[in-house]
Inverse folding.
C-alpha cells in the first residue's frame, strides 16, 4: 500500500491532538477567519453577476446504487435527491479510469489519463504545472477553492484557497495540509469538518465581489467505511437483498476471476468490518485497524467499542462459515457503508440549506458526483477499477442555477446522453463564459443542461484502467462503451477480449466475444475502439 510521502515530506509539522476544534493552528485559522469577516453579501448582490458560481461536491467511492434518486433498494438520500429533483439527473454518466487519482486528474484537466499523465494511484505524481479548469476560471475572474481529498501527490495549483487531507485522509480527528504547507489536526468527523470548512470559506474566506468555484471533496465513503458514532445504530435491523450476481462464478471472464476484491475472500473481518477477535486482530490489516482506533478520543472510542462489541458477539455466536460467512460480511458491509452515506447526505443538506439562506441558489450550479462508482456486492465484490457497469458508471446530478432555469425555460429533467468526467471542465468553462481550449478532450454539457439533444453528440466512450500489478489485482484493460454494447480488452499478463450486449445482459455475465454470430459486431467495435484510442492519443503499455 502506498504512503503519502509527497505530502508528508512537504508538510512542515504535525501537531498533536487536543480537545479543541482546530489544533495547534490558531494563528493560521484565526487569520483565515478574519480575512473577509466584514465582506457583505448585500454589496455583492447589488452587482449583477453574469458568471455562474460553481459548487462541485465530489465524494469518494459513492455508488449510484446507494442514492435513492438512482436506486431505492437500499437507502434514502433526501438531500442528494433534492439536487436531482430541482435539477438534472444524468442516467448515463461514466468515468474514464475508475480510480481516485486518475479520475480527479481527468476531471481537473478535461482530458483522458494518457493526456494528463496521471495513470494510476501508485506510480504517478500530477504535473501541477499543466492546464486545469480552476486555473482557467481564475483567468476568467473567478475565486477558486478546494477542500478535502486531493490524492494527486503534488500540491494543488490554480486555487486561491485550498486545504486538503494527506492521501486518503482519516475519518476521525483528521489531519489537513494547509496552504501554508502546515499539517494540522482537527477534532471531529471528517464529513462534518469538510462541510464546516466549505461553509466557512463561502462566508468568510472568499472575495465576494467575484464569481467563485468551490470544490468540496469528501473522503467519505471510502474504505474502511467508519461511521460517525452518532449513526452507529442505524440500519442494524435491516437485512439487505443480495445482488443478483453476488454468487457470480466468472465463467468466460478470466480477468474477473483473477481479481482480489471479493467480499467473501478479500474483505477483512477486522479492518473492513471491525470484527476484531483473537485471530483477526493479529493480521496486518487487523493491526492497521487498531492503529486507526488510536485516533479516536476517549468518548468516541467508548461509543465505538460499545457498538462493535455487540457485532463481535454476534459474529462469535453465529460463527458463520462458507456462504453464511459471505452473506454475514455483505450485511455488515452494507450497514457500515450506508451509515457513512447518511452523514454525507446530511452534510450535503446542510451545505444546500446554507447556499439557499445566503441567496446563492439564483446564480450557483451545484454538482454532486463521485470519483467513480463502486460495487455493493455485485459479482461478489467491493471496490471498483473494472470497466463493468457498477464501477465505470458514476452518479452525476446537478442543481442548475435558478437564473439558468428561468432563462432557458427548464424543468427538472433526466439527461440520457453518454457523458464522462472529462466533460466537467469544458462545462464549467462554458458556464463561466470562458474559452474552451482546443486540447480539452471532453465536451461541454451545457447544451444537455438546456434540454437540447445535439445530433452530433458522442455515440461511444473510451475507457482505460492501468493500475496493475496492484492492490485488488484488476488487470489492465481498455475498451469502448456505446449505448448498447461494451467491448473490453484485458492485456499485460493476459490477452482477453470481452463483449457484452447491455440490453440483453445488463449484468455482464455472458461474454459474447468468440461466440458465433458476433464476429461482425466485435470487429466493428474493435475498429471504433482503435479510432478512439488514436483520437485521444492513448498508448497500450
Ligand atoms: C486504498 C484501499 C483500496 C482502494 C484504494 C484506491 N485500501 O488503497 O481498497 O482500492 O485505496 O481507492 S485500504 O486498505 O487503504 O483501505 S481510491 O478511491 O483512492 O482510488
Ligand atoms: Ca475513489
Amino acid at each position: 500500500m502506498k504512503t503519502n510521502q509527497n505530502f508528508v515530506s512537504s508538510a512542515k509539522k504535525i501537531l498533536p491532538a487536543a480537545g479543541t476544534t482546530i489544533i495547534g493552528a490558531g494563528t493560521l485559522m484565526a487569520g483565515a477567519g478574519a480575512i473577509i469577516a466584514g465582506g457583505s453579501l448585500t454589496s455583492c448582490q447589488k452587482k449583477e453577476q453574469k458568471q455562474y458560481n460553481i459548487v462541485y461536491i465530489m465524494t469518494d467511492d459513492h455508488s449510484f446504487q446507494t442514492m435513492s434518486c438512482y436506486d431505492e433498494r437500499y437507502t434514502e438520500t433526501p438531500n442528494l435527491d433534492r439536487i436531482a429533483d430541482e435539477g438534472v439527473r444524468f442516467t448515463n454518466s461514466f468515468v474514464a479510469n475508475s480510480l481516485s487519482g486518475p479520475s480527479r486528474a481527468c476531471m481537473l484537466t478535461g482530458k483522458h489519463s494518457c493526456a494528463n499523465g496521471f495513470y494510476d494511484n501508485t506510480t504517478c505524481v500530477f504535473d501541477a504545472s499543466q492546464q486545469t479548469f480552476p486555473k482557467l476560471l481564475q483567468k476568467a475572474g473567478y475565486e477558486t477553492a478546494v477542500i478535502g481529498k486531493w490524492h494527486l501527490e503534488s500540491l494543488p495549483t490554480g486555487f486561491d484557497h485550498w486545504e486538503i487531507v494527506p492521501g486518503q485522509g482519516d475519518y476521525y480527528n483528521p489531519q489537513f495540509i494547509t496552504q501554508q504547507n502546515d499539517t494540522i489536526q482537527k477534532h471531529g468527523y471528517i464529513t462534518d469538518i469538510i462541510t464546516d470548512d466549505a461553509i466557512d470559506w463561502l462566508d468568510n474566506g472568499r472575495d465576494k465581489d467575484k464569481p467563485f468555484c468551490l470544490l468540496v471533496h469528501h473522503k467519505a465513503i471510502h474504505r474502511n467505511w467508519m461511521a460517525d458514532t452518532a449513526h452507529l445504530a442505524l440500519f442494524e435491523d435491516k437485512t439487505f437483498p443480495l445482488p443478483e450476481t453476488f454468487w457470480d462464478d466468472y465463467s468466460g471472464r478470466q480477468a474477473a476471476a483473477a481479481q482480489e476484491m471479493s467480499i467473501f475472500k478479500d474483505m477483512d473481518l477486522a479492518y473492513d468490518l471491525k470484527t476484531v477477535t483473537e485471530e483477526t486482530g493479529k493480521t496486518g490489516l487487523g493491526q492497521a485497524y487498531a492503529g486507526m482506533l488510536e485516533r479516536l478520543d476517549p468518548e468516541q472510542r467508548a461509543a465505538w467499542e460499545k457498538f462493535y462489541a455487540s457485532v463481535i458477539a454476534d459474529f462469535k455466536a453465529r460463527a458463520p462459515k462458507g456462504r453464511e460467512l459471505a452473506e454475514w460480511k455483505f450485511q455488515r458491509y452494507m450497514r457500515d457503508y450506508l451509515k457513512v452515506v447518511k452523514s454525507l447526505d446530511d452534510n450535503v443538506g446542510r451545505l444546500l440549506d446554507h447556499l439557499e439562506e445566503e441567496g446563492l441558489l439564483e446564480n450557483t450550479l451545484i454538482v454532486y458526483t463521485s470519483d467513480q462508482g463502486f460495487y455493493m456486492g455485485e459479482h461478489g465484490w467491493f471496490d471498483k477499477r473494472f470497466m463493468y457497469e457498477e464501477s465505470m458508471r458514476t452518479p452525476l446530478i446537478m442543481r442548475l442555477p435558478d437564473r439558468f432555469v428561468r432563462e432557458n425555460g427548464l424543468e427538472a429533467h433526466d439527461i440520457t446522453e453518454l457523458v464522462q468526467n472529462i466533460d466537467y471542465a469544458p462545462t464549467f468553462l462554458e458556464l463561466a463564459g470562458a474559452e474552451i481550449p482546443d486540447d480539452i478532450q471532453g465536451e461541454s454539457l451545457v447544451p444537455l443542461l438546456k434540454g437540447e439533444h445535439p445530433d452530433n453528440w458522442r455515440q461511444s466512450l473510451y475507457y482505460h484502467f492501468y493500475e496493475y500489478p496492484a492492490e485488488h489485482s484488476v488487470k489492465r484493460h481498455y475498451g469502448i462503451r456505446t449505448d448498447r454494447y461494451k467491448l473490453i480488452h484485458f492485456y499485460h499478463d493476459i490477452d482477453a477480449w470481452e463483449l457484452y450486449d447491455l440490453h440483453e445482459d445488463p449484468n455482464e455475465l455472458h461474454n459474447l466475444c468468440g461466440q458465433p454470430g458476433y464476429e461482425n459486431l466485435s470487429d466493428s467495435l474493435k475498429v471504433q475502439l482503435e479510432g478512439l484510442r488514436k483520437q485521444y492519443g492513448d498508448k497500450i503499455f
Notes: The chain has 17 helices and 17 strands. Residues 60-61, 100, 222, 371-372 surround calcium ion (ligand 2) (CB under 6 Å). The two ends are 22 Å apart (CA to CA).
